[in-house]
Q: What sequence folds into this?
């Protein structure tokens, strides 16, 4: 028995894509390993400012042995220690969000593939009705041509139109197969066993506030600012504590000594201004990129809204067409039953109605596709 996998839309925060993880084993393994890498990298960076304890032991051929332990630890760097630790935290946030975006891209591809598969299935069904109408048209044109009511051009055009639709049908079948293969890049579950929930409308402010690209650039700003302040502090006064302990064994004569000290350092560098300005410029550049990305995402949102409105308006027109077709169909059925109309007229109208009904479903999927793109461009949780 096949059980449908119901895909949830709160993926990353729960560590999976749905109740039964949709991602295939390979991509899940990559994501899990990246989580570990990010955490360990953050830990290493956060305490990178701590100096190591240096231990050494030596012995020579004259019977003298020595052991030494020393450390020199900065305790003040004019803000450099704070920004070094803040850099680690901000970079960790950035990399986690970047990973969340990567997972969201995988999710988006799965959702889009499933929706496109359904769309192609509806389009194939719609084309089958249009082909039936084309076959009726060719049959009627052939009879008219045989009776001399039309010339060969009209019959030829009807045949060509039918063949174009049949070719489109074959191309759509190929696209459907390709989309199924595309889905397999991300999941081993068949599209028929994945239930995609309806994605609700997201407002423009919410889209921008939670947009991955915009937020990643915000955190990149923080990282660049931390780097700028850390670089600045490296050219300002610093204070360090130092400690040293020695133990010596020289042919039975033992000795040890200890010393502690405090050191104030004031670096003087000819390149300090250039180095500081380089980091400051990188920070200002990232601020400009954030503003540019915000503008681009606002336009992308507006473009999607325009497309959604177009699909909605098109469906209103199609609904009006269906109402008119149904009205004409009732009249035609009555005329057919009374012998005034041919069965072909009824068939053409019925096929046209079914075609328009399927076109409405296709446009509804087109709306879902746009909403899916917007949704998975934003962070959750």
A:
């Amino acid at each position: 028995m096949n059980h449908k996998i119901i895909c949830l839309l709160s993926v990353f925060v729960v560590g999976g894509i749905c109740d039964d993880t949709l991602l295939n084993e390979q991509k899940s393994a990559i994501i899990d390993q990246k989580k570990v890498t990010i955490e360990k990298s953050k830990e290493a960076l956060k305490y990178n400012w701590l100096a190591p304890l240096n231990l050494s032991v030596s012995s020579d051929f004259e019977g003298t042995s020595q052991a030494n332990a020393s450390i020199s630890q900065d305790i003040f760097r004019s803000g450099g220690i704070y920004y070094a630790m803040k850099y680690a935290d901000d970079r960790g946030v950035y990399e986690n969000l970047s990973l969340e975006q990567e997972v969201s891209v995988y999710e988006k591809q799965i959702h889009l593939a499933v929706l496109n598969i359904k769309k192609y299935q509806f389009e194939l069904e719609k084309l089958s009705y249009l082909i039936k109408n084309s076959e009726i048209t060719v049959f009627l044109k052939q009879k008219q041509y045989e009776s001399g009511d039309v010339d060969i051009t009209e019959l030829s055009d009807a045949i060509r139109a039918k063949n174009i639709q049949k070719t489109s049908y074959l191309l759509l079948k190929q696209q459907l197969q390709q989309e199924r293969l595309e889905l397999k890049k991300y999941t081993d579950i068949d599209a028929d066993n994945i239930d995609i929930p309806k994605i609700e409308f997201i407002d423009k402010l919410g889209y921008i506030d939670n947009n991955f690209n915009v937020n990643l650039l915000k955190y990149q700003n923080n990282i660049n600012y931390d780097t700028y302040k850390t670089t600045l502090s490296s050219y300002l006064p610093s204070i360090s504590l130092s400690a040293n302990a020695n133990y010596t064994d020289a042919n039975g004569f033992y000795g040890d000594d200890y010393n502690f000290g405090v050191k104030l350092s004031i670096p003087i560098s000819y390149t300090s201004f250039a180095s500081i300005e380089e980091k400051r410029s990188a920070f200002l550049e990232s601020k400009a990129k954030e503003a540019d990305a915000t503008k681009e995402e606002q336009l992308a949102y507006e473009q999607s809204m325009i497309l959604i409105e177009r699909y909605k308006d098109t469906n209103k027109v199609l609904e009006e067409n269906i109402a008119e077709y149904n009205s004409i169909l009732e009249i035609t059925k009555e005329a057919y039953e009374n012998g005034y109309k041919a069965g072909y007229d009824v068939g053409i109208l019925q096929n046209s109605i079914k075609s328009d009904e399927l076109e409405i479903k296709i446009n509804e999927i087109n709306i879902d596709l746009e909403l899916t793109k917007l949704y998975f461009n934003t962070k959750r949780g």
